[in-house]
Write a structure and sequence with these properties.
This protein has helices spanning about 10-20, 20-35, 40-45, 50-60, 85, 90-100, and strands at about 65-70, 75-80, 150, 150-155. By secondary structure, it is of the alpha+beta class. The two termini are about 10 Å apart.
Length: about 160
């Protein structure tokens, strides 16, 4: 039997270890919308201050956000996305699109994003080379970790 320490090597698991907690993703949502100051984040997210402080510290340490002083006396900071943090916006867009389709009643969408071309953003995953939308049936997984197959550890 495979224990937790022997679980499949996985970039999804590593990413979730960093940003998979609800408040971390909501921090990224707020910062991407322009709410960068601690009091704005507390208000807009509704997280306890100590929890939010811990999430911000972790995101800064991981290089997803940077802490920038905006006031000397008293010292005040805001949180801005790094290039790595901005890359996570596409994850937020796809989570939002899924939630709009599957969790909102009567077609209500709490937020609509407009692209610079003037049209509404509709998040989708496409193949980098052919540009086609990705569908589950079009994918083939190729495990790269030694000793692992698609369905689990290779037989010894």
């Amino acid at each position: 039997m495979v224990g937790m320490k022997d679980s499949r090597p996985c970039s999804i698991a590593a990413t979730l270890a960093l940003v998979g907690e609800k408040y971390s993703l909501l921090v990224l949502r707020e910062v991407s919308l322009g709410a960068t100051r601690f009091d704005q984040l507390v208000r807009n997210i509704g997280a306890p201050r100590d929890v939010l402080t811990a999430r911000l510290k972790r995101l800064v340490e991981a290089g997803v956000l940077e802490k920038v002083e905006y006031n000397e006396r008293p010292k005040r900071y805001e949180y801005r996305p790094t290039p790595a943090g901005r890359e996570l916006e596409s994850v937020l867009f796809t989570l939002m699109a899924w939630g709009d389709r599957h969790l909102q009643e009567d077609g209500f969408r709490p937020m609509v994003l407009e692209h610079s071309c003037g049209h509404e953003l509709v998040a989708q995953v496409v193949c980098r080379d052919c540009g086609e939308e990705v569908r589950h049936d079009d994918l083939t997984a190729h495990p790269q970790s030694p000793g692992w197959t698609v369905t689990g550890p290779a037989a010894a």
